[in-house]
Design a protein that fits this description.
- By secondary structure, the chain is mainly beta.
- It contains no helices and 14 strands.
- The strands form 4 sheets. The chain has a 4-stranded antiparallel sheet with strand order 4-3-6-7, with no helix packed on it. A 4-stranded antiparallel sheet has the order 8-9-12-11, with no helix packed on it.
- β1 and β2 form a beta hairpin.
- The radius of gyration is 31 Å and the shape is rod-shaped.
């Protein structure tokens, strides 16, 4: 027969699982419009947290620290204040069973389109009298954007006096007072130099 024997204990090392973090952003990227960043962690961990950083090339503009994932996903809402390039980064912290991972995605926030309407009071003044040009600038939601309006004129005739003897811009309306009005041959006004807009309006 055989005598009873006992084997020596065997050691088994169980390594933490590798993870990947994928970041997506939903919403319409525009200044002042809320966006949502979603971090998807695979495989879905049962612990750890996800931390978000939203940054431009020069500064961090928003953070969402220590968000506990649910079903492998974590989210962060933020609102870009200005147009430009942003990078959204999510870092999964890892835990005893899952390793740390990082993901990022670029977001291009475009300037809000505006419309500019230009008119004048030339029909009610005599040749040589001051003419007031008015530009009305508005965003799609009807609000008046900040910034400034600049004016230039091209014409086949020269102006006797300096263009825009006075200018103002307030609440979406800009005015330009001109001492001498253009004749029938020409006149082109272009303007809007503010907040990344570049629009023209003819007259």
């Amino acid at each position: 027969g055989f005598k009873a024997s006992t084997s020596k204990p065997a050691s088994l090392a169980v390594a933490a699982a590798q993870t990947t973090t994928t970041v997506t952003v939903t919403g319409s990227p525009a200044p002042g419009t809320p966006l949502t960043a979603l971090a998807t962690i695979a495989p879905a961990p049962d612990g750890g947290t996800a931390s978000f950083t939203i940054a431009t090339a020069s500064a961090t503009v928003a953070t969402c620290p220590n968000i506990a994932p649910s079903g492998g996903t974590a989210s962060c809402s933020f609102t870009p204040a200005n147009a430009g390039q942003y990078t959204v980064t999510a870092v999964y912290s890892g835990d005893a069973n899952y390793l740390k991972s990082t993901g990022s995605v670029p977001v291009d926030v475009q300037p809000i389109s505006t419309t500019e309407t230009v008119g004048d009071n030339a029909a009610s003044v005599a040749q040589g009298d001051p003419v007031v040009f008015t530009a009305v600038v508005s965003a799609p939601d009807g609000t008046a954007p900040a910034g400034s309006v600049s004016w230039t004129v091209s014409s086949s005739t020269s102006l006797a006096d300096s263009f825009c003897t006075s200018t103002t811009y307030s609440d979406g309306t800009a005015t330009c007072t001109v001492n001498t009005y253009l004749d029938e041959s020409g006149g082109f006004l272009q303007g809007w130099d503010g907040e990344g807009h570049d629009l023209t309006a003819g007259d």
